[in-house]
């Protein structure tokens, strides 16, 4: 089982910035895709930004130009740099990892515990 540990959420004023981190740990796994989702109260979980299985980056239209996803392959860590934050960015942000498990020869998915991001003055 691969574990995900997220950090970096908090309270920020509109126009401010935050950086989220998500580190994956475990034995013998190969990352297939990794990224960030968010869920605001009363809404469905939605993709924010992700590295796809073909190493392309996908962004939600609402965050393009403001958020940047990056990664450190040596550390199995993905980051989300969020700038020009808006109140509508307030949500719990979840890290997601799709990985290949050589033990079972299956693709599996793992979610982080979530980190709260609140944008408010």
What does this structure look like?
By secondary structure, this protein is mostly beta strands. Helices cover 0% and strands 57% of the residues. It has no helices and eleven strands. It has strands spanning 3-7, 10-12, 18-25, 30-39, 46-51, 57-59, 67-72, 77-82, 91-101, 106-111, 115-119. The strands form two sheets. Strands 2, 4, 5, 6, 9, 10 and 11 form a seven-stranded mixed beta sheet that branches. It is elongated. The termini are far apart. The model has no long low-confidence stretch (mean pLDDT 95).
Q: How would the blueprint of this fold be written?
A:
Layout: E1 3-7, E2 10-12, E3 18-25, E4 30-39, E5 46-51, E6 57-59, E7 67-72, E8 77-82, E9 91-101, E10 106-111, E11 115-119
Parallel strand pairs: 2-11
Antiparallel strand pairs: 1-3, 3-8, 4-5, 4-9, 5-6, 7-8, 9-10, 9-11
Structural class: mainly beta
What fraction of residues sit in β-strands?
over 45%
Rounded average pLDDT = 95
Biggest sheet features: 7 strands, mixed
Radius of gyration: 14 Å
Q: What is the number of strand segments?
A: 11
Q: Could you give the distance between the termini?
A: 40 Å
The helical percent reads: under 10%
